[in-house]
Amino acid sequence: VIIIVHGINTEVEDGEWMDELGAYLDKEIQTRGLKATVLIHRYNPFFGFLRIAQTISSHWRKRQVRKFQQYIAWVRRTYGPQVNIHVIGHSFGCYKTAYAMTLDGDQPKVFYHTVIFFGPAVSSRFKPSDAEGHFQQMHIYFSRGDRVIAISPFGNAGYVGPVYADGVKLVGHNETPLDHCDYFKAPHFEKYKTEVADALFSTKKETT
What does pTM read for this prediction? Predict the structure, then answer.
């Protein structure tokens, strides 16, 4: 199962990227003769976006992470407990994806196969080793031209990249010259769609 997760307001402002990427991956799945399902995860099924002011509250952010943990649990109940889960996140979508691997609480920590982050609003001091065993490969795209993440109050890994690797191999540690949403705009999007597909499918016969 491949899950695409948007950031704050980007479902509204640039939300077509999720549908376009989902359609591209569906086509790649068919072309490569693979078995996989693409899901687009929206925060709100009616409006699909967050208000920036909400994200200031650490309590609210933790609640969003727990809700994402619940969502991943639903995916495993629906598609099977052994299903490989791959997540492609942007901005705050990366926050939920990352901390769902480390946040303790009433929901279990999640396990992914592949994690792909674009402009992650995650602390640059987030330690992949803290989530060791909860993912098999991680690809991070970040940029010192990302004006949104440069001033983010809760994480700037999308601006400076992760500070700590802690011996955990980041399969893709990619610095770019792009601004926050430019990954999903022409002419760049074609390149990143191809790179996402290669990261997910290049060595796999079945992705699920």
Answer: 0.89
